[in-house]
Amino acid sequence: MNKFRNISLRALSVMLSAIISAALLFFIPADTSADTDADLNAMAEEIILLVNEARTEAGLRPLRAVPYLNDVANVRARECIFNFDHYRPNGDLFITALDDSLVPYSMAAENIAAGSFTAKDTFAQWKRSLNHWKSIMNPEYTHIGVGVAYDQNSEYQFYWEQFFVACDTQLPEQYIPERVKTVPVGTGDINGDSEINGFDIITICRYLEGDIELNELQFESADILKDGEITSADVMLLQKYILGDCKTIPITIDMILSGN
To answer: In this structure, what are the phi and psi dihedrals at residue 44, rounded to the nearest 5 degrees?
Structure first.
């Protein structure tokens, strides 16, 4: 049996208004299991990939995954084993699982699902539900956490959670998962095509505009000054290198000060 529900809420000052919808599908899962936390984490990561692929296809910005939000989603997924609801086992609304001092959100929502044992099938459940799909495709959400819980002896065995927030600040360790990780060959090769050219300028500018995230290797590659930050100065120096005005990168602050 598949069972899933959706809730959307806005947080305005200290008041919350919630819209809850529920649906029930019939599904008999195959005899399967998830043996390790790594298995469950991989399934959760696949959900985030599917969400962002759907959003990109619709012309929306991808959601940034956040380790803390993944932890919150895992808490909620485990709670759904015992109480499959948008209310927690203690009777509180789902949003109380989130510490708003860590995530200063303006909007939040969750999608929950149970019964399917693959990310693809679970995502298809949510896609068939208008209210769940609205949360996935909401252009105001900026960040996501996903959790998956498994209990062989429970009613539905697999429990899935998506936790969405709208937050206008950068959250610690936020990232956008990649199916194939971009691996630069060195400083300046930000898009990982083994060349340093205008496409790398475009990539670093899109990062500075907030359109994309860089993985840790790309960040290191884009940090032309090797000062731990990516700014317009890195763009300027990368452009100078491409135009031949400087002969080597990276260029450190000490090199600039010494005139080398």
So the answer is: -65, -45
Beta strand 64-65 pairing with 143-150: parallel
Using CA atoms, how far residue 209 sits from 61, 179, 198, 204, 205, in Å, is 12, 23, 16, 9, 6
Residues of the chain with pLDDT under 70: 1-35, 253-260
* Contact criterion met (CB below 8 Å) for 163 and 69: yes
Where helices occur in the chain by DSSP H, the ranges are: 37-57, 67-82, 119-128, 130-136, 198-208, 216-222, 232-243, 253-258
Residues 139-175 pLDDT 10s: 999 999 999 999 999 999 999 999 999 999 989 999 9
Indicate the pTM of the whole model.
0.76
* Rounded Cα distance, 201 and 191, in Å: 9
Read off the tokens for 66. Answer: 């956040």
